[in-house]
Batch of 3 targets.
Target 1
Amino acid sequence: MDPELEAFIPLLPRTDLTDLVGYRKIYADLAASRPAPDTSGLEIEDRTVPADPDVPVRIYRPQQPQGAVIWLHGGGWVVGSLDTEHLWAAPMADLSGAVVITVDFRLSPEHRFPAALDDVYAVLTWTHDHAAELGIDPDRIAVAGHSAGAGLAAQVALRARDRQGPPIRFQLLNEAELDDRQETWSQRNFTDTPWIDRDVVAASWRHYLGSQPATPYAAPARADDLSGLPPAYIATAEFDPNRDDDIAYALRLLQAGVSVELHQWPGTFHGSLAIQSADVSQRQLAELGAVLRRALAE
């Protein structure tokens, strides 16, 4: 474990998805307690995307944006909001030089799959259709996210391909939740890793799916055909149950002819990027922004 990260482990709250009311408050309070990001170079606007139901979004506009990134928050599909993601969205807009759009998608278990995917797809379509208003090229739209949000990014990339929907330039999947089966080595063995372990991942899938069977649009690792998907950047944390699922997905994308950059961050755990004082977290954040900047500029 990276020593800077290890020092924070005793301070981390327990992730308890059996008490969602309590954990949602803990998650929101933790986000509110962190230093606010610098937003001096950004124009920030809350909007509502017309859909059924309408989807709240928050738009971060830097000067002369290269493109747009639909950024999807983590939280196991059960926690998270526009406010909790502000800490990531603002620096991501600054570092990437792109319009960043965060999505207040519906949460499980109140709204199970495919509610969140429907919301994100509606925002993707709206972003493409309103590219001129946003000041971007409609062919320079990326989907990106962390954890369950990265899983949603992969889901929406599959749906857009299969429906011949709006073109997606790039997908960035950070510590993505991709496979409900939990059959890889990291899923079977990481039973006491910090913040997120095997049981927490299993609980989030139960909330997300309920009693319905998983389809490839819910669990992208189940997709038989990954050809024709957008180029991808996939980042994994060493001590993360999702690690081997993500590496396997990256290899399958490569074998399907999709261009992939895979980055395994040693000494990190799932969500340790939130510990922004650590050198490795600062390098991770800078890397994510640089990857998006390159992808949307090329």
Note: The chain has ten helices and eight strands.
Target 2
Amino acid sequence: MPEPAPHPDQRPARAPRADVRRNREKLLAAARSAFTAADTAVPLESIARAAGVGIGTLYRHFPTREALVEAVYAAELDAVTESAASLLEELPPEAALRAWMDRYAELVSAKRGMIGGLGGGWAPGRGATVSTRERLTGAIGALLEAGGRAGTLRQDVDPDDVITLLLGVFLSTAAGDRTERTRQLLDLVADALRAPGPPPA
């Protein structure tokens, strides 16, 4: 006797089709560019057009502007936190740490643009502040640990304190285009994290 078909709620969810995933990725990329480049709210129609899809496709993926911004910010946060491992594969730990700081600065800049585009009153990542901080701290911790093994970065520093220093830099350079000033301050933070004396031979 054949077994009864599973209830619809018990069937495994199918993975999104490749074209659906591509459309979502194109929308996120277009939205990121639009939100970070503009100081005012960006028409969703222009984002859909830049992604090469219709406005209906955008709304199927992101029913509201806030949902789109949340998704853009989440994707950017993923990219920044996951970049620590790839940077360590390409660069010495102290150089990887400094490059990661620039990636983090880009995330903060993008977040400001997204908030500005929404007209304020809302912040990406709301309700996930603790989780976000933990992920960023974990990335810093991995970089410091690698630097400790290489003898190039200090090991007496709490990664959470480094995040606090970086947030202070970004807060102090928030007004206007202060890119060069941000780089200078990040250089100072990176120098403070270097291990004293030459690395072991």
Note: Confidence is low (pLDDT under 50) at residues 121-128.
Target 3
Amino acid sequence: MTISRRKFAFAMLASLGLMSSIWASPVFAEDAPKVALIMKSLANEFFQSMEEGAKAHQKENAAKYTLVTNGIKDETDTAAQIKIIEQMVAQKVNAIVIAPADSKALVPAIKAAVDKGVLVVNIDNQLDQAALKDKGLVVPFVGPDNRAGAKLVGDYVAKQLKEGDKVAIIEGVSTTFNAQQRTAGYKDAMDAAKIKVVGVQSGNWEIDGGNKVTSAFLRENPDLKAVLAGNDSMAIGAVAAIKAANKTGQVLVGGYDNISAVKPLLADGSLLATADQFGSKQAVFGIEVALKAIAGKQTQNDMQAQVKTDVVLVTKDSK
């Protein structure tokens, strides 16, 4: 392709609006299975590390498979993620490893991909089991127990509080299973410690969302003692809101994901705890499940239903 033709092709993609909402990065291995990794927002450090981990794995196994990585700009843009699935099917990938933006809305597109012979593995955010059952579909989930991970953080925060204290929960995108499970884990911990949850509000996984929700909680509850965020991005926003309200040290914060951006906050105590679910390895685990299925000539329903991965508590004192 000449330079002028490349420019024309790029311009055509931009005019269709694809370049504004989708990142795509291919890594080629000739005559090998092609695996597509479809993530949520690559503006989120967690998914950046996931992509980096997958690319490093492919580089080490260059003769075994081709990798194409994709991500949407907005974690709530399910339409863009559906479009990516359709594009990957059109490109005749052998397998799709996906962190779905919505636990239910992506199921029909995944069913369409499976019907065309593409193997699908689910990572990070688990697809809705009832929706899968309705489609007669089995999609293996490779990932941690989000509820248990959030409870680890919640239990640690609760040890710094007393019975009857007030806490608030910032949830991720409320239609996602992992957001719901993390909220449930936080509630489990607070119930066990007899600490009052004054409210649950979505921050849409974003720093700005976490900031706005926390500011509102602080206005409505001047005696709030802690904020439990469904991911570290929202926790960063919560820390900023608490600082703006001159309540640093008075209102504790818990997060989830252990992204590098929160290390200074853990060090100075602005963030009390987070959970590490090893984002850089999650995609790799999913890819390996897909490659094993391809090598074994398995159909979608032949694959193992669930592969649990680790999640651990991270605090200032963690080694």
Note: The chain has two domains: 18-143+280-308, 146-276.
